[in-house]
Amino acid sequence: TLCRQLKQVILGDQVRAVTIYDTKIAYFPAMIGRHIKDVRRRGKGLEIDLSGPVVHLHLRMSGRLFWQPDFGLPPTHTRFTIDFAQGRLLCIDPRRFATLDLRHEYEAGKSSIPNLLAGIDLDPICLQAQRRRLPIKAFLLDQQVLPGMGNIYACEILFESSINPWRPTCDVTPEEWQKIITATADILKIAVTCRGTSISDWRDLFGQKGEYQHRLKVYGHAGETCPRCHGQIERQKLSGRGTYYCPSCQT
Ligand SMILES: [Zn+2]
Questions:
Q1: Residue 99 φ/ψ, nearest 5 degrees
Q2: How far is the CA of 250 from the centre of ligand 1 (A)?
Q3: Contact criterion met (CB below 8 Å) for 143 and 149
Q4: From CA 27, how far away is CA 22, in angstroms rounded?
Q5: Does ipTM come in above 0.95?
Q6: pLDDT tops 80 at residue 214
Q7: Nearest to 197 by CA among 150, 160, 159
């Protein structure tokens, strides 16, 4: 995924220059001369650790990162560039939703999806879930609960767990939570190997479409036959998001 690719190209490198092309984005002289200590996912954004200050980057809906090894002319809609010895990182964002900000210490706290994979701690999530009546899919998409969870993943996870997306969260049993966590781990592992999903405009760092979309079982398959029970996959809106599921085997 983006985070892993970014690590491959900039980890350990020194920031030579930062150029800002958008007045909405602040300029941070503190970045210059620092070395990239780590790149982490945090919620839907990225944290670039500069051994002290941490840059928080959110690409939002339309922002993309590109790697330019030849220091060529930045394309239109370039919002900022960060130069390293080996090349230049560009953020291109036609709609100017992407944000960049600098914080001086790492705020530890909420677990991200990769952390969930490392040491899955179900108890706090189950405890919260027992008190919530909202549909389970809306709960999964709550960024306070699972930072980084996206709509495509939520559809696929609930399909793998055979749970109807509209089921009240408090009715999901501990056994079913175990299924959800297992499915989440499996799906994210596949997604990481395939370099992310690339439906709806998302492309990875090297400008290629991810391959995970070919493995999606329900998302984008409305009207097709369910791969598990041969029922028909449906699409409906849930909290404003397109929700794909099989009404026959997701109960
Ligand atoms: Zn089915």
A1: -130, 155
A2: 7
A3: yes
A4: 10
A5: yes
A6: no
A7: 150
Task: Return the half-sphere exposure (C-beta side, CA atoms, 13 A cut-off) of residue 135.
Answer: 17
CA of 189 to the centre of ligand 1 (A): 23
Please tell me the distance from the alpha carbon of residue 84 to that of residue 228, in angstroms, as a whole number.
Answer: 49
Distance 222 CA to ligand 1 centre (A): 12
Between the CA of 219 and the centroid of ligand 1 the distance, in Å, is 13
Domains recognised in the chain with CATH numbers: 2-103 (3.20.190.10), 113-245 (1.10.8.50)
Which of 129-143, 165-179, 208-222 is least confident?
208-222
Cα→Cα distances 182→109, 160, 169, 186, 187, Å: 23, 9, 17, 6, 9
**What is the model's pLDDT at position 108?**
32
pLDDT for the residue numbered 197: 47
At CA 244, angle to CA 241 and CA 249, rounded to 5?
140
What are the distances in angstroms from CA 90 to CA 9, 12, 70, 231?
13, 18, 12, 46
pLDDT tens string 61-115 = 788 899 988 888 888 888 889 999 889 999 998 888 888 776 654 333 333 444 4
Tokens at residue 206, please? Answer: 């090297």
Ligand 1 centroid to Cα of residue 225, in Å, is: 8
Q: How far is the CA of 152 from the centre of ligand 1 (A)?
A: 17
